[in-house]
Amino acid sequence: MQPPLALRRTEWLGDEHITADYTLLERELQRDNPDLAARTRFLRPAPAHLLRLTDDPSVLQETLQVIVNDAHGNDTANFLFVPVNNGGASSDGTHWSLLLVDRREPEGIVAYHYDSFRKPSHGAAARQLAVRLGARLETARITQQRNHYECGVFVVDATRTLVGRLAEGQRPDDQPLHLDNLVADRRALRDRLSGRPHSQRRTR
Question: Under a CB-based contact definition with an 8 Å cutoff, are residues 14 and 21 in contact?
Fold first, then answer.
């Protein structure tokens, strides 16, 4: 069990919050849907940031292999959830968004970008990551945040909602899995990170 992690009422999410919630979600999916879990990867912020910013081809290749390969060295990753931060190599970021990367067709990998506060600079960071992942970038709709601090909550809640829809058999085949009615539930996230039970609310 991971130790409880505090999250204040208007605190921006850091790497540690997204890492902690992705770890919880990964365990839940392994328990509830091991087949989908075996084909899904939840990138933590640190390797996602490294993928976007590294100029070393060997580091890029090694990082990708660690992400997509299973314990036997086989590429079994159909879906990647990638948190995108717009920070630079020597500057802190100011925004989180999400890529859902559909790798089922190796010759036609698509990265769907969910951004709760759309700006050109956010799209640029997503495009950089999509290129590194060999994917074509497409925009998916998501509810737009009404304050300056909830972008990270939208990322983890969008991830959980999309995982639920994948588990139900939905796939982004003809169009993205849009999240027009997503509600960012900070209280539920705080409960998860603190270890308190909370009935997770999913909306479409």
Answer: no
- The residue whose two tokens read 């925009």 is 139
CB 18 within 8 A of CB 96: yes
pTM strictly above 0.85 = yes
According to the CATH classification, is domain 15-191 in 3.40.395.10? yes
Residue scoring higher pLDDT (1 or 117): 117
Angle at the Cα of 55 (from 51 to 59), degrees rounded to 5? 60
Domain ranges of the chain: 15-191
Spatial separation of the C-alpha atoms in residues 91 and 71, rounded to whole Å: 35
pLDDT tens profile 11-36: 999 999 999 999 999 999 999 999 99
Q: How many CB atoms lie within 10 A of CB 78?
A: 18
- Distances in Å between the Cα of 132 and the Cα atoms of 13, 20, 78, 129 are 24, 25, 16, 5
Distance between start and end Cα atoms, the chain: 30
